[in-house]
Design a protein that fits this description.
Blueprint (H helix, E strand, L loop, with lengths): L16 E2 L4 E9 L2 E8 L4 E5 L4 E15 L2 E6 L3 E4 L5 E16 L7
Antiparallel strand pairs: 1-2, 2-3, 3-8, 4-8, 5-6, 5-7, 5-8
């Protein structure tokens, strides 16, 4: 069931879906212009370097991550955030188990 344009998303009613080895995600609220996604990483899980035409901003909800954007790597912890410009190669390594809250504009049609 599509939740596009729904004003509320209830975490307890949204199933996790696989998103890579040791990674799972929940698609939260979205419309064609913006999408919010929660991504859960097991310790050591790797978000493979990739790029996409969307702007992405992300918040570290929990855990510790090594985030690489366009060749620059920084260690981020709970409360830290990052911005990925369109088409920049980026990736994540979960130094500790944790959760990222990702926001994309426009929405990631490939996720739904």
């Amino acid at each position: 069931m599509s939740r596009i344009n729904e004003p509320f998303a209830f975490d307890s009613k949204i199933d996790w879906e696989p998103a890579g080895e040791g990674i799972r995600r929940k698609i939260l609220t979205y419309n064609p212009e913006v999408m919010m996604v929660r991504v859960d990483f097991q310790a050591g899980a790797v978000g493979t370097p990739h790029s996409h035409p969307h702007i992405q901003c992300s918040l570290v909800e929990a855990g510790v991550f090594d985030i690489t954007i366009a060749g620059r790597t920084e260690r981020l912890k709970q409360g830290d955030s990052f911005l990925v410009p369109p088409n920049a190669v980026h990736g994540a390594v979960a130094v500790e188990a944790g959760v990222l809250l990702d926001v994309f504009t426009p929405m990631r049609e490939d996720f739904v």
